[in-house]
Specification:
By secondary structure, the protein is of the alpha/beta class. The chain contains 9 helices and 7 strands, in the order ααβαβαββαβααβααβ. Strand 4, helix 5 and strand 5 form a beta-alpha-beta unit.
Length: about 270
């Protein structure tokens, strides 16, 4: 099982995209995390629509992106074509491949980025070890995730996870999956050093109505694998909870904090 994002290609950027200044700040942090130079060879596994790869390339770094979704990569290719029409060659190479079996030589890349991907594959540890295999000696695997927090006691998406967990079973978030994976990696290879780096932070607002509607439309991958009847029952419970908690404040703005978390994994140089 891997989660192909073809169905999300049309709305991914509208629902997950970063504001341009946040995309640039994230790209700068990733470059700093590996002391990048113009010669640094970047690979992003699960590159998607290039939400991270494009800003990184725009800062002067060549990047190869791997994905199993041709739909997501087609969006990325459209962005590359648009930038090239504006007059600059863009150094992005796209490869259709499964991150659990990368079609690259050992040590082919200096830095491998994995953002929001390990919760989507059948064997995350295999994917991480594969990413480390193609990382050059002294290079880094950057495991990244967006963490969203708010002020009210529980957000609509947290409540959704709770309802699904109680009804059907746990659906680990991308950040939780990354934490579990890093713990397992430490055990699998004690020579790895894992360092948390300074995150990129931003603020935005949402509303309970908007969050509920996104779930109703099954925009998030954590809704895709639920059988329709389970999804309908969970949604009904979530809707009741939203009406009880937010009442006539369903469309009031709710402040949110976003945090792009980066963990750098390095194998000690022999
Ligand atoms: C949540 S999106 C993240 C995209 C990008 N990293 C970002 O942060 O915007 C996950 C991406 O991983 C891809 N993916 C899922 N399983 C994969 C696999 N086994 N091999 C390669 N890509 C995979 C999906 O198709 C999707 O484009």
């Amino acid at each position: 099982m891997s989660m192909n994002f073809d169905r999300a290609a049309g709305y991914y950027d509208a629902t997950r995209g970063y504001r341009p200044e946040i995309g640039s700040a994230i790209a700068k942090s990733l470059a700093q995390a590996v002391d990048a130079s113009a010669a640094t060879r970047f690979l992003e596994i699960g590159v998607g629509t290039g939400r991270i790869a494009i800003p990184l390339e725009q800062q002067g770094y060549a990047i190869t992106g791997v994905d199993i979704s041709l739909g997501m990569m087609a969006r990325l290719a459209d962005k590359v074509a648009e930038l090239e029409r504006a007059g600059r060659p863009v150094d992005v190479t796209l490869v259709e491949a499964d991150m659990q079996v990368l079609p690259f030589d050992d040590g082919e890349y200096d830095a491998v980025i994995a953002a929001h991907v390990f919760h989507l594959v059948a064997d995350p540890i295999r994917a991480a070890l594969e990413a480390l295999r193609v990382t050059a000696e002294g290079g880094s695997l950057l495991v990244c995730a967006d963490m969203i927090s708010g002020h009210e006691p529980m957000s609509v998406s947290e409540k959704w996870r709770e309802i699904v967990r109680d009804t059907y079973g746990p659906i680990p978030s991308s950040a939780e999956a990354a934490d579990d994976l890093l713990r397992e990696l430490r055990i699998a290879d004690p020579s790895l050093s894992i360092t948390g780096l300074r995150p990129v932070n931003w603020h935005f607002t949402t509303t309970a109505a908007n969050d509920l509607e996104n779930i109703r439309q099954r925009l998030w991958s954590n809704t895709w694998s639920l059988p329709d009847d389970v999804f309908a029952a969970c949604l009904q419970e979530l809707t009741r909870w939203c009406l009880a908690v937010f009442g006539d404040r369903m469309t009031d703005p709710l402040p949110r904090e976003g945090e792009f978390v980066i963990r750098r994994v390095r194998r000690d140089v022999q």
